[in-house]
Amino acid sequence: MLASALALLASGCANKDDVVATQRSDGLSSDGGLTTTPRPPECQAGQYKGALNAAQGALSATDAGIKIQYSGSIDFAITESLSGEFKLNDDTAALSGMGNDGSSFNAEIHGGECDEGQVQATLENGTYTFYTDAAKTQTMTYDFRGSITGLYTLQVNKGASADLSGFVGTWNTVLKTPYGDLVVSGTWSATRTP
User: Fold this and answer.
1) How far apart, in whole angstroms, are the C-alpha atoms of residue 29 and residue 38?
2) Phi, psi (deg, nearest 5) at residue 161
3) Which of 21, 82, 124, 186 is deepest in the core (most CB within 10 A)?
4) In this structure, are strands 86-88 and 94-98 parallel, antiparallel, or unpaired?
């Protein structure tokens, strides 16, 4: 009886003409009919440049009577340490911009690291300068601090010579005004430059 059961099982087993798939070719895995998505891309060392904008609801501060226009550039470099960690270079990481009304802002990006496709850093020594009169002869400056977070992305360009890689994310700042703290936030993106 055992021999007939083994013969029945053996007849259903693969022979030299059968093809046996052991792994999916699309990079996804399957477990009991449930498909999982691939891991996000890891961080890559390099120089990143891009733009940032204030969120729609964060464009005015009615208490202070000023208009906050954060729209500008972001520039940072990520290096890989010998231990495999990805760090933002504090000495080159900066955020800056200018509004249509002549207002300007600058900040340093500090303490940043990228782990499992996510970047986090603080915005320090930030200044927001704006004109206080219509003739644009007098200015006022508010200090600010904040944070920046983002996810690493990889976009495949069909037909292009290279794929684009970079980050998309959000930022939050707290401006120190005579009227109290003013929170301004928005979005940013930066691509890896060759």
Assistant:
1) 8
2) -75, -20
3) 186
4) unpaired
Q: 80 near 42, Cβ under 8 Å?
A: no
Residue carrying structure tokens 């399957």: 30
How many Å apart are CA 46 and CA 27, to the nearest integer?
Answer: 26
**Residue at 131: amino acid letter:** Y
118 has which bridge partners?
115, 151
pLDDT tens sequence across 58-70: 444 444 455 566 6
Tell me phi and psi for residue 10, to 5 degrees.
Answer: -65, -30
CA nearest to 150, candidates 113, 183, 105? 113
The model scores a pTM over 0.70: no
- SS3 call for 96: strand
pLDDT of residue 126 exceeding 80, the answer is yes
Q: In terms of residues, how long is the chain?
A: 194
Instruction: Kindly state the greatest CA–CA separation across the chain.
Output: 102
